[in-house]
């Protein structure tokens, strides 16, 4: 009588920047060999980050743990060989070369970080009266004071002095930094 075995989560070390390549290879290799029941989800933990490029605000996915991916698998010698033999892999995290499953609370914590509502507003880095310096755009290097904060738009209104006159600028959070 066979016992029903449960897939566990493991951490696979890869070359940094090759996580997506390893994931795609493993998915196609497992399907080709008909081992889908032994390999569940393959997850690359990511965060959404905001950045300024060419004067425009962009969002992109950034790997939370470069060089690591999470694999839900039923490890036996055959599936371990398939996973360990994938290009750009270093091996499983574990003790004495053996794949050690992650505790459920760690898996929940990591997957929970990824499942957080992406539309949730980040912490507001500025408040009225803060001294700031413009670091991006046509007014680069100008300094001024935050007059108003727009958390829903992730923008601030900054009063700067241009030719001796106070002028308001509406800037993204990423275009200014605290002076000092």
UniProtKB/TrEMBL annotation:
An individual GO BP term: DNA-templated transcription termination
All residue ranges annotated as the NusG-like N-terminal domain in the record: 6-114
Domain annotation KOW: ranges: 125-152
Transmembrane segments: none
Family: Belongs to the NusG family.
NCBIfam families: nusG (TIGR00922)
PANTHER family: RHO-INTERACTING TRANSCRIPTION TERMINATION FACTOR NUSG, TRANSCRIPTION TERMINATION_ANTITERMINATION PROTEIN NUSG
Protein name in UniProt: Transcription termination/antitermination protein NusG
The organism of origin for this protein: Rubricoccus marinus
Lineage: Bacteria, Pseudomonadati, Rhodothermota, Rhodothermia, Rhodothermales
